[in-house]
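Bug #2210: token dump truncated for Mitochondrial carrier protein?
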Amino acid sequence: KKMERFVLFLSFVLLTPQSVLTLKSSSTSFSSVTKNRRAALWFPIAAPLAAAAAVPTEKETNFVSNRQQTTQSEFISGLAGGAAQRLSKDIVLHPIDTVKTRLQRAGSRRLTRRIFADPFDGILAPLLIGVPAGALFFGVKDATAVLCKGFNEDLVEFTTVAVANGPYWFIRSPTELIKVRQQLDGTTINMTGITLAKDIIQKEGLSGLYVGAIESYAYALPTDLVKFYVYRKLKKSSLPLTSTKNLVAKKAILGSIASASAQLVTTPLDVVRTRAMEKRTPQSTTTTTGGDLSIPERTLAIIREEGVGALWSGISPRLLRALVSGGLQFGSYEFTKKAFGGPSTAAL
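Reproduced locally. Full output below:
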């Protein structure tokens, strides 16, 4: 770049004054014309040099090519790792998630037999949509991390998580709503996901499928930021001090700690999210359910009607789920990503 600018500047300095001279009247002296001709001889020399300087070097071309290949590799391996971790989490953790969700509903903070009944209610929709959404999340996240490489790590992490959560929740929000409704409402247990979706659209319109979508994004963003930040710090401080044997298992343990830390901090946002997706019935006496309140308004309503403790409803199953979830997520993700030839967790 510096050589290119220098050559162009040199050409400008040498040629411009002479070009101005040629525009003068025909009374220009013989000596001036001679100078013009001599200076013009620089053009055949300077022009090729400037053109050569403007052409990317082989090193620059290889850098761009390698960056594109790395981005593609990260995206593909991220897709595979994201799908694997989402599938394992949905199958193993759905019963715990069902208990947690039922404890977070309005007026249901005590353990009863109904809390544990039909633990796999609503699992079909997350499997069909959640797995592709999880794959897309990590594919976008890892590819974005490559494009942002070289910047501040914390800034890159915030950017990748914020960008990846957008398409993730756009795809997953309708199925998350269906899952929560099936977990909470006993009348929808025998309804298929498609039937329930049609019922929601008929009664609430197409936008009804995205009730709680904003709350889900507002919950997921800080949760993922805390989780990935803690995981990255633990990995940097712990793994270099250990052997490479059973590395995936060690990362799974660190993932469990990171996930539990994140869930402990963001439980109130999850409660608010659940209440937003909970269907308000005509017999309901609470104002905390339904999708017509903002996040601050719903939070204050929960505190006003049920006390601050209600914001931590379901914390026990959440922490249990987080410990298992973090291990499954990071363990299966790291293993699958490595199997598909991707560098280990570029963004984490």
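Output looks complete on our side. The first helix runs from residue 2 to 22. Marking as cannot-reproduce; reopen if the truncation happens again.
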